[in-house]
Amino acid sequence: MQEASTIYIRSDLKEQLTNLKTHPRESYSAVIERLLLCAIDPDPLTSEEIAGIEESLADIKAGRVHTEEEIMKEFGVE
C-alpha cells in the first residue's frame, strides 16, 4: 500500500475538486491524479521542434509568408 499524506488546500479549491469528481465517491486523490495526467505532456517538444517554431514565428513577424493560393499555384494544385 502506498504511503498517504495530509495536505492543506483552501476550501475554494476543495470545492472545485469536489465539482470535478466523476462520481460522488471518487477520492480526491483520483481527481488530482486525473488532473495531473492532463497537465503533464507525455511527449514534450524537442529542442529542434522548439527552434523550428521560433524560426517560423520570426518568419511570420518579418512578413515572410505565402498565401494558400500562392502555394497551390506553385505546386500546381487546383
Rg estimate, integer Å: 23 Å
The number of helices is: 4
Q: What number is the mean pLDDT?
A: 94
SSE run: HHHH
State the share of residues found in helices, binned by percent.
55-70%
Structural class: mainly alpha
Query: In percent terms, what proportion of residues is strand?
Result: under 5%
Number of domains: 2
Report low-confidence residues grouped into runs of 5 or more: none
Question: What features would you describe in this structure?
Answer:
This protein is mostly helical. It folds into two domains: 1-40; 44-78, no CATH class. Helices cover 56% and strands 0% of the residues. The chain has four helices and no strands. It has helices at 11-20, 28-39, 47-61, 68-74.
Task: Give a concise summary.
This protein has 78 residues and is mainly α. Helix content is 56%, strand content 0%.
Task: List the topology elements.
Blueprint: H1 11-20, H2 28-39, H3 47-61, H4 68-74
Which key features would you list for this structure?
2 domains; 4 helices; 78 residues; mainly alpha
